[in-house]
Amino acid sequence: MNFDEFMNEIGEKTIETETIRQIARMVSDIIKRRKMLGLTQNEVAQKAGLSQAQVARLENSSQTPRVDTLIKVAIALGMNIQLNETDEHAAANYRLTHV
Length: 99
Known about the structure:
This protein has a single domain (about 5-95), classed as 434 Repressor (Amino-terminal Domain). It has helices spanning about 5-10, 15-35, 40-50, 50-60, 65-75. It is mostly helical. The longest helix has 23 residues, at about 15-35. The chain is globular and about 40 Å long.
């Protein structure tokens, strides 16, 4: 099952599912960029000031990445992370879950 199939199976659009979706897209873009540049995880790690294990964890999605880790890797790959406004009604479409 790929990521899109997984998200479709979850169905309900919540803050949590949208968070997972956006993180997964960022990580996917990072992996594509690293491979396009022909860099190893170790080379990216050195450029970003991280360990190869941190880059591997980011790419394997074994845990939710820290924002600073995402930004460091993005910068090392000549990328940036931006916040863009969505449709002003989009926020109303998310159901908040209580933790």
